[in-house]
Amino acid sequence: MVRVSVRRLSMLAVGLAAAFCACAGGPPAPKLPGGPDYCFAGANYTFAVVANDPSSDSAAVLIDWGDSTKVDTSGWFRSGDTVGLSHAWAKIGTYEVRAWVRDHKRTSKASDPLDVQVVLHQPPGTPSEPVGPSAGVQDSSSTFTSEVSQLGGLPLAIRFEIGRASCRERV
Question: How many CB atoms lie within 10 A of CB 87?
Answer without folding.
Answer: 20
